[in-house]
Amino acid sequence: MLYALNGIVVEKNRNIVVIDVNGIMFKVIVPLSSLSKLPDINNRAHLFTELVLGENVVNLYGFCTKAERDLFNELRKVSKIGAKTAISALSALSVDRLY
Q1: Do residues 26 and 60 touch, judged by C-beta distance below 8 A?
Q2: How far is 94 from 37, CA to CA, in rounded Å?
Q3: Each residue of 5-15: pLDDT tens digit?
Q4: Residue 63 is inside which H or E element, if any?
Q5: Which of 19, 28, 63, 81 could, after both became Cys, cross-link 69 (CB 3.0–4.6 A)?
């Protein structure tokens, strides 16, 4: 659905980044590995994204690389691992370490 975002970083907090894409603000949950790679506020950023529909919530997750996004989706296929756990794993370990 949403493949990627390309816009200006408006806000960065813990594991949340807000990206302004032509006046539309996207709140994106990112692993710490991606957050550290993002540019400072008011600079252009590119994130590969994954839209996750939960029972009562819709979240947009973002990643600096396709490999991170792909691993996020692979982790979510494992029984008992949801999006929050997958993001935590990617925050704690590199893609190579997780594989």
Answers
A1: yes
A2: 13
A3: 999 999 999 89
A4: strand 58-63
A5: 63
- pTM, full prediction: 0.93
Q: Buried b / exposed e across 7-21, counting CB within 10 Å, b at 16+?
A: bbbeebeebebbbbe
Question: Does the CA dihedral 89-95-64-66 come out positive or negative?
Answer: negative
**Residues near 39 by beta carbon (within 8 Å), at least 6 away in sequence:** 9, 45
DSSP 64-83: SSHHHHHHHHHHHTSTT--H
Dist CA 56 CA 93 (whole Å):
29
> How many whole angstroms separate alpha carbon 44 and alpha carbon 92?
25
* Closest listed residue to residue 34, CA positions, set 5, 68, 6: 68
Rounded distance, CA 73 to CA 69, Å?
A: 6
Contact by Cβ (8 Å): 16, 27: yes
Give the type of residue at 25: M
Task: Give SS3 for 37.
Answer: helix
